[in-house]
User: Fold this.
Amino acid sequence: MLGWNFKKKGLNSKKSSLFDELLNIFKQLLLFTSGDVPEAISWLTELDKEHNLTNDTYGIADFIQELIEKGYITKPSERSPKAKPTAKMEISLRKSALDDIFNDLKKSKSGDHITRFTGQGREFTSDIRPFQFGDNLDNLAISESLKNAQINHGIDDFMLTEKDLQTKETYFKSLSSTVLMIDISHSMILYGEDRITPAKKVAMALSELITTRYKKDTLDIIVFGNDAWQIEIKDLPYLKVGPYHTNTVAGLELAMDILRKRKNPNKQILMITDGKPTCIKKGKKYYKNAFGLDRKILNRTLALALKCKKLSIPITTFMIANDPYLVRFVDQFTKANKGKAFYSSLDGLGEFIFMDYKKGKRRKDY
Assistant:
């Protein structure tokens, strides 16, 4: 329990049941324990002893039974003695992350990023133009079209022709392919500061945002330590930091391979990290140096940043550390790529990524 402070907030309120309140706390504990249900239950029991979360008629055992009955966790059995989160719980975790981080979102039609360009879309501009073959009939400016018909043909011989038709101009909507890179090197939990939990919570929120609001976009998630590998959205709650160095080169190479297969022209990399690159792979061996900025590792990393720039793949780095020499590295990296960098606290990480995701795709598809 050392390292986290939990407060009793709004339990037994009229607007939510005791189960719902306990579920909210339990989901937070699941993130801290990387999906370990027994450990999360153990923590919840300790919190109950300290803060009296339950009452005489509803205890932790009742809550666990209701979790099983409602399909949030599996029922222990001889074949699988350890309870695990279900797909329903994984979805609920992503929705909760989205609510916590992006709570100012409003519902809108899915799959669109509004740009400053005109083209096919649903949001109308203030402009009216003549109808052209292929335009969406739903966008017809009825009043202006009827006015043209009256002017061109008169009231006595009224008719509506194609030349009379006017249509409302709409904003062009773009598609975007995003690769989210998450640093899982040991430094993400170094010095007693948990940096991986906010990082994966942001990843869960972003994945829920894209899959529900921007359905035509693509999001791929990769993690990088000594090596880099792709993970599924459903794997995010179980993400753990390993005894790894930081092989940013491996992460960027994998991200570029993934984006190379995406057909739409709007591509970007979002990278969450707290440190400098300390590892590269030479053949089958690793070259590691955790002290300072190693020139061999740095040059390989900057070369990939420049390559991404040539491929029109901007990289946005979200740096959750502010050591001066790390800031200098990120500045070099950002200049090489012509990308962006945010130096964020753990609390502000979600807001930064959300704002960048919404603003970063205001480009026209060619």
Remarks:
- Confidence is low (pLDDT under 50) at residues 6-15, 104-122, 361-366.
- Residues 18-85 form one domain.
- The radius of gyration is 26 Å.
